[in-house]
Design brief:
There is one protein chain. It contains no helices and 8 strands. It is mainly beta. The protein has one domain. The strands form 2 sheets. It has a 6-stranded antiparallel β-sheet, with no helix packed on it. Strand 1 and strand 2 form a beta hairpin. It is globular, with a radius of gyration of 16 Å.
Length: about 100
């Protein structure tokens, strides 16, 4: 069964919609906004994580003891910039 997505609100960020990740009808994780240019994925059900070898961004694994909610989480930060696909690679272009 594929993973489903649902928009919801949680008490962690009142008034801010989040994306719930569902598997077989059970909530297995959530994606929250994080700062101005990032997201936080929270899940106690992660069994494996992987970044593609050529991934040029930043993914930070947070310590559950210091995070809220106190569950394993990953923060992804984005840098919107122009890019092209050259061959099988994404190539960032200089910002104007």
């Amino acid at each position: 069964m594929p993973i489903d997505f649902r928009i919801a609100e949680r008490s962690v960020l009142p008034g801010t919609p989040i994306v719930e990740l569902l598997l077989e009808g059970w909530v297995i994780g959530a994606i929250y906004p994080h700062g101005e240019k990032g997201i936080r994925m929270v899940s106690a059900h992660v069994v494996e994580k992987e970044c593609e070898q050529d991934f040029a961004g930043t993914v930070i694994e947070e310590d559950p003891a210091r995070a809220w909610p106190p569950v394993p989480s990953f923060v992804v930060r984005f840098d919107p910039s122009p890019w092209v696909i050259a061959g099988n690679r994404i190539v960032r272009l200089p910002k104007s």
